[in-house]
Amino acid sequence: MSKRSRGRRRRAKPRSRSRAGILYAVVGVTAVAVLTAVLLNQSAPAGTAVSSSDGLSPSVQPSGGSGGTASAKPSATATEPARKPTAKATKAASVAGTDTLRDAVSRAAGATSVAVTDLTTGRTLDYGGAGHGFACASIAKLDVLATLLLEDQDKGTELTAAEQALATKMIEHSDNAAADSLYTTLGKAPGMDAANKRFGMTSTHSGEGILWGVTTTTAADQVTLLRQVFTSSSLLSTASRAYIQGLLSQVESDQRWGVSAAATSDDYELKNGWLPRSTTGLWVVNSTGRVDRDGHQLLISVLSDGNPTMDQGIDLIESVAKAAAEALLPG
Where is the Beta-lactamase class A catalytic domain (predicted)? Predict the structure, then answer.
């Protein structure tokens, strides 16, 4: 597919869309009950990955820009950003917020799922997409880089200057050729699957051959990966985490949509993915990252597929991201 050409506001307001059909009315009450349990830190059904039947070739991997040079380098003195403590959300307000989230998810033309962790309070939310494996598209590039850095740590080596240049293109510009090269360097699916197992990502399955874009995952697994990037309880070193964070903070301006809709400031880092499936023409649209919301540091991932257009997918995930953050942090 071609690179997304038009820019978007950092926190674009989702468009209104028609209500879902009778099916959503039938399951609505159950959905509220499940989400309420999750908001109260109880367990909820987790989605499991399924293999993709779409035999994508490298030419139809999620598209990215071209060019760019290395603009961030691991630093031995890098430190994790300070997290601001704030008050916990009340039980009553959390329950009230489930209606907005349920309504946002109900607008999906296909499947959608969201997971959020509040690093400030420790509260979590995981909603939608149970039993469904989502194709990663270009959010797999974050996994590629984390795996490559972990492998280098194991070997006691660092990224070469050439690998750093490729990493910058891959993350900041979503360049596919750079991802192809680095995915090959880390050992393709066997290498990334081995790292993901160590990261604790139990429902993510890497794409075969060079097809990193059809790696399947869940929103909960993507938040698990974000914890490796944004918390000290990580297999990645402080320097590796700071390096990834630096690249995520500098994605090009026309790719700053998605989970950034949940932020209340310009303090966020993210990676997005978008991909039209060759068998259906419907769009996978995903977004994952860290946002600041009223002083709370949220790790948030929203995954979707079956979108009629890319723009409709973007509007959906922005609406779901914002609603999920409001449900977790009402007020």
Answer: 156-258
pTM of the model: 0.76
Cβ proximity of 252 and 8 under 8 Å? no
Query: Residue 188 and residue 141: Cα distance in Å, rounded?
Result: 12
Two structure tokens written together for 136:
């990663």
| pLDDT level of residue 4 (50, 70, 90 thresholds) | very low
CATH fold of the domain at 22-328:
Beta-lactamase (3.40.710)
> Quick check: helix, strand or coil at residue 228?
helix
Q: Encode pLDDT of 260-307 as tens digits.
A: 999 999 999 999 999 999 999 999 999 999 999 999 999 999 999 999
Q: Please, is 199 exposed, middle or buried when counting C-beta atoms within 10 Å of its C-beta (0-12, 13-18, 19+)?
A: buried
Rounded to 5 degrees, φ, ψ at 290 are -115, 135
